[in-house]
Amino acid sequence: xxxxxxxxxxxxxxxxxxxxxxxxxxxxxxxxxxxxxxxxxxxxxxxxxxxxxxxxxxxxxxxxxxxxxxxxxxxxxxxxxxxxxxxxxxxxxxxxxxxxxxxxxxxxxxxxxxxxxxxxxxxxxxxxxxxxxxxxxxxx
Length: 140
Known about the structure:
Elements (H helix, E strand, L loop, with lengths): L1 E10 L15 E13 L4 E13 L5 H24 L12 H17 L5 H10 L1 H5 L5
Antiparallel strand pairs: 1-2, 2-3
């Protein structure tokens, strides 16, 4: 998947709106994306466009806006995607105190990242085979 982004920014001066929450934000960001995705059924690349809006609490320019949005989605890709696909958090059937187990999964992921593990899937498999491996992690 390839993305081409263009950011536009508008300053939000204090007191320019009647809503109280408006004064908390200093910049409105508009990101226009053109995305090329490979369609496995058609065996061809499909192009689509989308527009996303963000509010920022700092005054920034368009170049900084692109970086801020990229960093935001970096968190999504590094954390939530791993929770969904490798730790299978969305399939969890835990109904009593699910937040405790979510914290444990986050702790496990953070412990692996602290120990500079790049391949989370392989580490989960290896750790399931040997508890000693987990006990030898730094920071535990």
